[in-house]
Amino acid sequence: MKKMIIYFLENQMMRKSFYASFVYAHNEMEDRRPSWHRLCSLKSVILNEPWVILGDFNVLGFQNEKVGGDGGDMKSMQELEDCIQTVDVENLPFKGVHTHGVMKEIEVLEYYVN
User: Distance between CA 97 and CA 88 in Å, rounded?
Assistant: First the structure.
């Protein structure tokens, strides 16, 4: 597991609370598995409390999230889906602009502007 941070957030005035996990998973499938196991083990601690999991999972959640190149690694996608099912959260599809390569273009533009 590269990094995972877990917070319990609470608004005492509104009496609302939830857990938030931030994940930065490895690039390689075998190295990501401990992250999925850790998330699954947290389910027994979090139980039925609201829980949001955000981060860079380094695997596609949906096939249509892939831009260019080959399709996603189906085995890796299935392992992520199994984890999502186990922890009983919902995988929301990507919305917005795909930024792969955009930051390089922005850096180049900044270089020329300066």
Answer: 27
